[in-house]
């Protein structure tokens, strides 16, 4: 059952609006329109063939960026419903959060960041903002999707503030500064980088963590990178596995794994809901703007559960993301993007005609960024096809 709308939820009737003013819809709220625009975007469809952990052709049952985003949205909406938040805004942010990811998962991001190190680097959050802010070309009156301020804020700040009140970068941005795509955008449309984002954005962010943990366990089991007994190394998963064994002593491993994933998601959602309720009862925000003014996120794991969740991430890092099979494939994938970037930089005429405008300009930085945008939009299979077109030998990535 949905909770009544909370006073601290984002109210679509009080949205700060869009960069390009549009008449309101007669049938949909501003946040519902945002969500629909994300779903109908070209970038969203491309997520079907973008790597989560396994390259698309390694198996039909592994997560892709698209299925991961759908699972994040399901978890986020469940939390938003319990907390009385705006579900449409929450779903928008959950579905949009990976639009800026390049092909081949984090390996692709590392490769593009290295290629663009002299031109501001690559950051997938900044790239998502570029996608929804300018790279989508679907509307006659503006580039991008012209999302509401609240959606743009959530895309950029769902993991917390990027600067302090004075504008100095904080956290992971302290060393290298605010990514170019974000720094340029806020000159036109101020997203208040110093404040926390809405509770809807905070819910979408933690739903991403929950989905990663549970579904990477599922994919890792399916791929044979580890087995259920290996997961007994962590207290939380060991407890869940023991509970499953007590209720279903003769259950086969495939169903045991699926039940583990289901129970883990339920446990983490319940823990986050309880912690958010406790935090909100203490801080008592009366509006979405009150939430932005607070000194810490309100949607979080309780301390004990945060330690359990961190243990899961460490396990997955060691047994999955750093597994020699995954590392070999991702190393080859990185080289594919290095090759493509160097080729396009040297021979811009190899780019599609619509990307040639400005790509051969004297400004090397502008040319490099355009090439980076083109590569970031590729699917895994298109990157492989392009590499096969331009080079004599292409890795199989299996």
Automatic annotation (TrEMBL):
Coiled coil: none annotated. The keyword Hydrolase applies. Pfam families: HD, HD_assoc. One of its GO terms (biological process) is dGTP catabolic process. CDD domains: HDc. GO terms for molecular function: dGTPase activity. This is Deoxyguanosinetriphosphate triphosphohydrolase-like protein.
């Amino acid at each position: 059952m949905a909770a009544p709308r909370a006073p601290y939820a984002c109210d679509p009737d009080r949205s700060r609006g869009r960069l390009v003013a549009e008449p309101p819809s007669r049938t949909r709220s501003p946040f519902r329109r945002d969500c629909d625009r994300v779903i109908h975007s070209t970038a969203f469809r491309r997520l079907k063939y973008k790597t989560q952990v396994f390259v698309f052709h390694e198996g039909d049952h592994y997560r892709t960026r698209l299925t991961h985003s759908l699972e994040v949205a399901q978890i986020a909406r469940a939390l938003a419903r319990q907390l009385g938040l705006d579900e449409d805004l929450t779903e928008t942010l959950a579905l949009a959060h990976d639009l800026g990811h390049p092909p081949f998962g984090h390996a692709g991001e590392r490769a593009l960041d290295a290629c663009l190190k002299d031109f501001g680097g690559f950051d997938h959050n900044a790239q998502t903002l570029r996608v929804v802010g300018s790279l989508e070309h679907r509307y006659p009156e503006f580039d991008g999707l012209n999302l509401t301020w609240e959606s743009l804020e959530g895309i950029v700040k769902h993991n917390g503030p990027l600067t302090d009140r004075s504008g100095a970068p904080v956290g992971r941005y302290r060393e290298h500064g605010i990514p170019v795509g974000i720094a340029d955008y806020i000159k036109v449309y101020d997203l208040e980088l110093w404040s926390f984002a809405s509770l809807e954005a905070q819910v979408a962010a933690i739903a991403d963590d929950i989905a990663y943990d549970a579904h990477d366990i599922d994919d890792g089991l399916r791929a044979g990178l580890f087995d259920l007994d290996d997961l007994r190394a962590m207290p939380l998963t060991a407890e869940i596995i023991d509970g499953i064994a007590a209720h279903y002593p003769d259950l086969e491993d495939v169903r045991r794994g699926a039940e583990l994933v289901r129970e883990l998601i339920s446990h983490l959602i319940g823990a986050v809901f309880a912690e958010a309720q406790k935090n909100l009862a203490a801080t008592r925000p009366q509006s979405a703007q009150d939430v932005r003014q607070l000194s810490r996120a309100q949607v979080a794991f309780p301390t004990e559960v945060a330690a359990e969740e961190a243990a899961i991430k460490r396990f997955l890092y060691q047994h999955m993301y750093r597994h020699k099979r995954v590392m070999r494939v991702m190393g080859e994938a990185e080289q594919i993007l290095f090759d493509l970037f160097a080729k396009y930089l040297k021979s811009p005429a190899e780019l599609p005609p619509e990307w040639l405008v400005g790509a051969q300009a004297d400004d090397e930085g502008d040319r490099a960024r355009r090439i980076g945008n083109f590569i970031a939009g590729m699917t895994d299979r298109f990157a492989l096809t392009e590499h096969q077109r331009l080079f004599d030998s292409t890795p199989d990535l299996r």
